[in-house]
Amino acid sequence: MSTAHGTAAASPSAAASGKRIGFIGLGLMGSGMAMNILKKHGQLNVSDLDARALAPLVSAGAVQMPSPRALGEVCDVVLLSLPDPSISRQVILGPDGLIHGLAAGATVVGMSTDGIDAVREIQAALVARNIGFVDCPVGKGPTAAAAGELQLFVAGDRDTCESLRWLLSMIGSKIDYCGPIGAGQAIKLANNLLSCGYGALISEAYAMAKKAGADLDIFCEALPQTAANSWPLQNVFVAKAFKGDFTPYFRLSAAHKDYKLVVAMADALGTPSTAARAVLGYYTAAAAAGHGDLDFGALALVNNPELLGE
Predict the structure, then answer these.
(1) Is 216 in the same domain as 109?
(2) Which residue, of 32, 42, 216, 296, is most buried by count of CB atoms within 10 Å of its CB?
């Protein structure tokens, strides 16, 4: 596992290959990660409230468990990919949570973007039961999750993180050790501050060009060829949103949640958040308008509502 750069790829030892693995949260990201683990490890216990999300994994050979607690009782390592820190707390620490099923010596890997406070709270509760915890939010999206090519921001006890390299290599092509618990969250939220923040500027730029009567086809063709280019401009807004396509790749509700965590983290650390607060206002407005289940490119609708009808 690299300290800052590089790919971790290792064949599992005999001991690792016998580990019982569980996965909770089979949404856009979790389903791809879980399927890769099942195919490469040959065994997986799964749990999710959505029967439709469970079906492909169960059909492929995964074992469905009725609750997080029940899943914990039959697993040595459990990975979670959940949409909100309140859900992560409930699944891990709640009355029927993992903490009540896992044996001492087991490990929980949090793949969710939950913020520093939540992961530190979860770690403290698990460590008190002699259960390990690794903070491991992910970079890239569902396509990379399905291909096993995610970027993983791993944080926590270094030895524990290193001991999971064989498993994390099944879902990530680049695995970076970021530091102590919470450091993975910091890197992921810094990433989303930028990647999701670009959308607010792109929306304003499009509205300005439109109001001036400019040819919007030139806007979409020219800007990706200049220093204004970014992954969201090219792949989210030009390729989809400005054509009226808001099929979710990364839901606006998730970006809104992440931006609230960004501002909360900045407040806790005492770091600047002027730009982040302005962007958060856009996500709050888009969510209030009912766009939460659309792709985060729906941020463009705040300034350009006509796109929804195109």
Answers:
(1) no
(2) 296
